[in-house]
UniProtKB/TrEMBL annotation:
Organism: Lysinibacillus telephonicus
Taxonomic superkingdom: Bacteria
A Pfam short name: CN_hydrolase
Residue span, CN hydrolase domain: 1-233
Protein name from the UniProt record: Nitrilase
Length: 263
């Protein structure tokens, strides 16, 4: 199975330009055979904006999700599309998982907000449930969420085979990005796919990590590009035979967490 992550530079506030660039990358990934394609956090709006501007652009970013539902349906591809969501008067950094028939299987709201994000957005509900898609069972996190190891562990214990992280990770956080994604993959013997932006101080390095914590492929720090990789979920079982972290896990440490047969 081929999967893709789009590493792109967004122009803050330029919805039309970002949308067309994003679509171009997605269509290119489809032509190359990708069955799952992931876009980075706030790709359609840009990241460095004020709360009034985010609010102004919110509906347009959500409308783009509808356009990508049509792309998913037409090309039978699973898409992970971040956007700005709104409930009542509250705004959320969000993403939707779109099935290959165009159905939105899940919308996830970023649950941990970094620094000044808390001035613009609300925390999402802290519930971490993977979703079964036509390409496998995936968990979704957004940027700062990956820095909390408990979230990935819960997703893995609930059966996630691939944890997807849409992100705007800055150069100042590059070291953490390089350490934490492989750590989450190894700790939980799952694949981790991190889709990051470039430009405006972002560190790029979109990457796929295998269940043993090894980098399968990593993009550059500065260039727009498509990460395109083959993914074989059978590697998970092979890794778990040698690294039994989840087999040894004591479910009583997390009240309410139902034991899942992983071995």
């Amino acid at each position: 199975m081929k999967i893709a992550a789009i590493q792109m530079e967004s122009i803050s506030g330029q919805i039309d330009k970002n949308r067309e660039k994003g679509k171009k990358f997605v269509y290119e990934a489809i032509k190359k055979g990708a069955q799952l394609i992931v876009l980075p956090e706030l790709w359609s709006s840009g990241y460095h904006l004020t709360k009034p501007v985010f609010a102004k652009l919110q509906q347009e970013t959500k409308d783009i999700v509808e356009q990508f539902r049509a792309i998913a349906r037409e090309h039978s591809v699973v898409l992970v599309v971040p956007f700005i969501d709104k409930k009542g008067e509250d705004f959320f950094i969000a993403l939707s998982v779109i099935e290959s028939n165009g159905e939105i299987l899940k919308t996830y709201h970023k649950s941990f907000l970094w620094d000044k994000e808390q001035l613009h957005f609300k925390h999402g509900e802290r519930k971490y449930d993977p979703i079964q898609t036509s390409i496998g069972k995936i968990g979704t996190l957004i940027c700062y969420d990956i820095e909390f190891p408990e979230l990935s562990r819960i997703l893995a214990l609930r059966g996630a085979q691939l944890i997807i992280v849409s992100s705007v990770t800055r150069l100042a956080s590059e070291k953490r990005w390089d350490i934490q994604l492989p750590a989450r993959a190894l700790d939980n013997t799952v694949f981790v796919l991190g889709a990051n932006t470039v430009g405006e101080g972002s560190c790029g390095k979109t990457k796929l990590i295998d269940p043993k914590g090894a980098i399968v492929h990593e993009c550059s720090r500065t260039k727009e590009e498509i990460l395109l990789c083959d993914l074989d979920f059978s590697q998970i079982d092979k890794a778990r035979l040698k690294i039994p972290y989840l087999k040894e896990f004591d479910y009583s440490l997390v009240p309410g967490l139902v034991e899942t047969k992983l071995y």
